[in-house]
Every structure is written in C-alpha cells, then in structure tokens.
Design a protein that fits this description.
The chain is mainly beta and about 90 residues long. It contains one helix and seven strands, in the order E-E-H-E-E-E-E-E. It has a five-stranded mixed beta sheet with strand order 2-1-7-3-5, covered by helices on one side. Strands 4-6 form a two-stranded antiparallel ribbon.
Length: about 90
Amino acid sequence: RENHSFTVHLAKTGKDIHVPADRSLSDMLTEAGVPVDVKCADGICGVCACGLVEGDADHRDYVLSQAQRETTLITCQSRAAAAGGHLVLDL
C-alpha cells in the first residue's frame, strides 16, 4: 500500500493535524501533545485504538472486525483511504 499525506480533525479539541506520507498517525498525535498508548506499532495489539467519527479510512490493522472498523481506528497503522483525505477522530 502506498502511504500518502492526510489530515485528521480531533472532535473533542477542535485541533487539525497534518499527517505526512512518511509518518504515522500515532506519531503525529503524540508530537501534537495528544497522548496515545502504543505497544506494538504494527497494528496487531489494538492498544492505540481511538474512535472514528467520520471519514474513509484505510484500515491496516489485524485487530478490528469489519463492524468495529465503522467506528474505530488503529492509529499506529491506519490512514485516510485517499491522498489528501480527512478523518474525524473522537479525540
């Protein structure tokens, strides 16, 4: 899969965060001062899960069921599905 840049909007704080193609969402959240617990960073443990409010996500994890992917995102591996995409997270 190709990585591309995208943005996330944090619903609880109103903050927008740009995620470059060469960085993970969890890294950018941490850098922005948003605490994210990360254990494996490979999408297999689910520790870094957060609520997905809106947007088309490219789920790259091995943890969530199809039903869970409607409302949850694994921040260490998942990204917006399209280049320049926008996700709204319950953070």
